[in-house]
Amino acid sequence: MPPIWKSQHWPNFGYDHERVEPFLASSSQLIGEITGLVDGLPDSDREEFHLAQIAQEVMSSFGIEGVPLDASEIEASIVASLKHRNQHAITRRSDAVAALMSAARSTPGPLTADTLFEWHRLLFFGIEVEDVGQWRRFDLEIVRSAVAGSNDVLYKAPPPDRLGQDMSVFLKWLAQDQGVSPPIKAALAHLWFESIHPFSDGNGRIGRALIEFVFAQSGALSFSLSRQIERDKKAYYHALQAGRQQGRGVIDATEFVIWFLQALGNAARFAREEAQFILRRNRFFLRFAAQLNTRQEQVLRRLFKQGPSRVELGISAKIYRKISGTSAATATRDLLALEAAGALKRSEAGGRSTVYWMSY
Ligand SMILES: Nc1ncnc2c1ncn2[C@@H]1O[C@H](COP(=O)(O)OP(=O)(O)OP(=O)(O)O)[C@@H](O)[C@H]1O
Q1: 147 and 25 co-located in one domain
Q2: What is the DSSP string of 310-330?
Q3: d(CA 48, CA 298)
Q4: How many angstroms does the Cα of residue 194 sit away from the middle of ligand 1?
Q5: Domain of 153: which CATH number?
Q6: The domain that contains 336 carries what CATH number?
Q7: What share of the chain has pLDDT > 90, as a percent?
């Protein structure tokens, strides 16, 4: 079958409103819920939540391929980039990807080719890549994963001599208000951009930054979508490949839009659990604050900082000792006092296997 950009309908992307509507309603409700929940958090928790979600987005989107990123470096670079915006000196790759993420979330429209070139340079800061900061100058094909050992061509992207024109039509559409909601616009923008594949490399990552940009025009996404994409990359690739069809006088993007809305809803659901975890943590400390000594509070806060999966593992006397740097006797005394206060529950297993669970 000829590539989609050879279709007479290119680049007229459309979708079946009736089929998409229930998915849009459900993802919008979930986005509304998480946004409301986050807005209601105390200032410092809201900042902590945002920082964690942005760092997660950078790790998931920009870490999918290539040079691995260090989580703590990323967080530090995001904090610096949020504080200093444009004046922040870029010396490390983490600074560059944090700057790219901030730019995607703060660049006012309309988006220009030069801004995309700048994003591309940031993405490949310190890495050698052909045609960095410009449209690619060679033909490009997307082939089935090398893991399968095959070289099946999944998609042939438009040739270099038409990228300038294709991108200018795309950017013009992006700047216009079609009266569609941000999730639909973000889905179409991503699919369209990936279908052009204008860069030599990094099209997935710049395309996901574009999603951030689209949402930010009317209120930045308060959670990480790429984490959800990363969880089921196969479905993402499949949706891109199969989610655009020729028919009904348009390039029918219904399947991709539906996949996108579902991924968005699942990402929002996951983030809602994280925000609820923060609320439960706050309630825990409010309830027991008066009964905790400084050491107990520090240990428990350290555990909560590591998230729900760590909290669910509970804490043994040995770990308590390790975190607090105290003696075995003090650790046991602290833990028993926490149990007596009702902040911890002791497991059935005794002796060295004793674990204390948090009552939160
Ligand atoms: N069949 C397809 N049609 C169009 N785009 C596709 C298709 N399959 C995958 N893609 C997109 O192409 C991206 C890969 O392109 P490229 O290697 O240029 O991007 P990247 O950012 O370097 O990679 P990655 O997203 O894996 O980090 C995928 O992330 C996805 O967004």
Answers
A1: yes
A2: HHTT-B-HHHHHHHHT--HHH
A3: 17
A4: 7
A5: 1.10.3290.10
A6: 1.10.10.10
A7: 79
Active site members: 197
| 10-55 pLDDT per residue, tens | 999 999 999 999 999 999 999 999 999 999 999 999 998 999 999 9
Span 178-209, pLDDT tens digits: 999 999 999 999 999 999 999 999 999 999 99
Q: Which domain holds residue 187?
A: 4-275
Residue 236 CA to ligand 1 centre (angstroms): 10
**Listed residue (45, 50, 54, 98) closest to 73, CA to CA:** 98
Which protein residue's CA is at the shortest distance from atom 25 of ligand 1? Answer: 204
pLDDT tens digits for 261-298?
Answer: 999 999 999 999 999 999 999 999 999 999 999 999 99
Ligand 1 atom index nearest CA of 206: 21
Judgement on whether residues 264 and 347 belong to the same structural domain of the protein? no
Positions at the binding site:
201-208, 236-237
Final residue belonging to a domain, choices 222, 248, 275: 275
Is residue 27 domain-shared with residue 160, that is, in the same domain? yes
Of the chain, the end-to-end C-alpha distance in Å amounts to 57
Q: In the structure, which protein residues have their CB atom closer than 6 angstroms to any atom of ligand 1?
A: 64-65, 142, 154-155, 194-195, 201-205, 207, 237, 240-241
Gap between the Cα atoms of 290 and 185, Å rounded: 50
| Adjacent-strand bridge partners of 13 | 251
**CA 207 – ligand 1 centroid, Å:** 9
Tell me if 90 is assigned to some domain: yes
What is this model's ipTM?
A: 0.98
Give the dihedral sign, CA 306/312/313/315.
positive
Using most ligand atoms within 8 A of CB, pick from 228, 237, 241, 256 the residue to mutate for ligand 1: 237
Annotated binding site for ATP: 201-208, 236-237
Ligand 1 mean position, distance from CA 208 (Å): 10
Among 78-87, 156-165, 211-220, 254-263, the range scoring the smallest mean pLDDT is 78-87
Phi and psi at residue 221, in whole multiples of 5°?
-60, 135
Q: How many domains does the chain have?
A: 2
